[in-house]
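Hi W., the zinc ion complex you wanted:
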Amino acid sequence: MNDLTRVSEREAKRDVSRLTHIVLHRSHLAETGEATAEWFKTHDEGGTGRKVPYHIYIRKDGTIEQLVPFSRVAPGAGVLNKTGIQVALCGDLRQYPPTPKQAMALGKVLQDLTSWLGKKAKIVGHTEVEGTSSDPTKECPGKHINLDGVRKLAEENYVPWHPAQADDLFREKGWVV
Ligand SMILES: [Zn+2]
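Structure:
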């Protein structure tokens, strides 16, 4: 993951010890997370109060971008905003699957995040949980992500870390500030 070079000040702070969910999304406004973040900051129709709704963005070439530190809210999932880490994959996953590089990158992100959060971490698709979207017809991330498969893989790759060790690593990388 890239280091956070520009720490966002507009998203609300939160207590990372209360994080419980990893929420998967599709996003196809732009090819990069940086451009996607810029779009949300400048468009009211994004519906996020001009805040960036994703913590992590995975480009089609597998590049992982961090848009918002985990210690701040990325308002991408309604009732799961305070306790969720929002992970977006670039592309319309209702129409076609993620690229192999994206799938690999997602696996790495989920391994890191579940290892950090521990067994309490729940991986969910955005619209799998009620109250996460104002649009009842929304399908996110989309049928080309096999959520049960993703959960199984994350479980198989789970590596427990000592929490203090994880906190140090995450602070060092700038994922938590
Ligand atoms: Zn979504």
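Residues 25, 76, 126, 140 surround zinc ion (CB under 6 Å).

W.
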